[in-house]
Predict the 3D structure of the following.
Amino acid sequence: MKNTFFLTTAIDYANGRPHFGHAYEKCLADMIARYQRSLGKEVFFLTGTDEHGQKVQQSAQKNNQEPQQYVDEVTAGFVDLCQKLQITESKFVRTTDPVHKKFVQEALQALYNKGEIYLQEHEGFYSVRQEQFVTEKDQVDGQWPEIFGEVVRMKEPNYFFKLSQYQEWLKEELQKNPNWIYPAFRRNEIIGALEKPLEDLCISRPKARLTWGIELPFDSNFVTYVWFDALINYVSFANFGTAENRWPADLHIIGKDILIPAHGVYWPIMLKALGWPLPKKYLVHGWWLNRGAKMSKSTGNSVDPLPYIEKFGSDTFRYFVNREMSVGQDSDFTDEKLIQRYKSDLMNDLGNLVNRSISMVHRYRQGVVPDYQESEVTEVDAALRSNQVVEEYQKSMEEYQVHMGLQQVWSLIQSANQYVEVNAPWKLAKDPVNDPRLNLVLAHLVESCRRLSILVEAVVPQSAAKIRTMLKLPSEPMLLKEAYFGKSLTGQTLGLAEILFPRIEDI
Ligand code: MSP
């Protein structure tokens, strides 16, 4: 069997410009995708936009545009963001793709034929913002929570999917799979939500009210909307039913707001009803906050990622979001935090280590990495070459604790910088009697840089390639373990040291 890894992000609503939260999810997914490639796996990675629905239709109207023209423009902004962030998706998904639309219709027809979908007059409360019917059970202290926006009374016929009959099955499935959802407490939240009886899911909108959707194959007066359209992207773009099929996904990466009910309840039940396999794992991340409140388009407090990517570069952005956010929790964004990480972790730690190590090889050894006597290696020298860091990094990455993985890699960078201070090569260079020791110290520093260029690949790919170019190694990504334990650079003439992260005053 082929060694593959299939991961997805949520697909973003195409009703505005991308914000910080969208950029984060893509950076998290991309770091995992690159890591999985470094294990030699063939990675299939989907990200994209969710282009139908009422909000999109309304935004297009406000802009005096046809919905298709509107989503073409909005989606171009998301594609551009992916390019600017060096995201390595295999396919950028768009739900207006005719292949997807046909696939959704076939899935709906199959469910309809099986008797899983029925028509019923429905009267109830409708949340305009969430584009769904809500019930009084959703109220908190007799009020509709903020997330529902305006809630109106509404009566109309609609098609319903028999969600409720799968409630017990889903509970059992969750009990059987303790590791299905990361972090684990999110699984308990779904189990908790299943304490209440499930109601069948309304999957249609009359065309009189919403035209911007996928027409129901069994009733042309209706379109399907939101979840039946969006969730199916994970399968419709995975060559399902062909020899190149990738489904089921190894990992769905989503934010905590779309776990319950969409991904944690609707999606597994839809798959079960369709007779398709379930995704192997969910990684549920938290939110970027702005002064304690979730950044979102609707509250207008979202931060535009582009100016930060333009000023500091995509590597800085990717590093910052993956290092600063503990996966699964929330994190408050401030400019100061980003600047702090830039200065301390990237400029002073990584940039400075690489720059001074390579510069010293030029200054003291004409750019040639010196050889040394293994018998002269002390415990402190050996510690710098320890394999512990790659093992720890790999363990964290396997558990999707990317912030921990980065912390471990950066502890190697900090140790190497301390090693420079303690050994003070500039002092050793003053007396030729120290030549063997200076050789050993310089060789160990170059070896640390070489290993780091492999360890930081998934998070800061451009910098990793630049380091390898300075070391006269191929700049392409390498296999993690093979490269890490690869040949040292003894005897190699290095390229000149370049600045990886310039001073803030200079950018
Ligand atoms: N279109 C749906 C998802 C359909 S998936 C089949 C949607 N779109 S969204 O644009 O609102 O959100 C897309 C992703 O961005 C979600 O995973 C969401 O959790 C994430 N984020 C949106 N705001 C966020 C933050 N403030 N912080 C981190 N991520 C958050 O939901």
Observations:
- The chain has a mean pLDDT of 96.
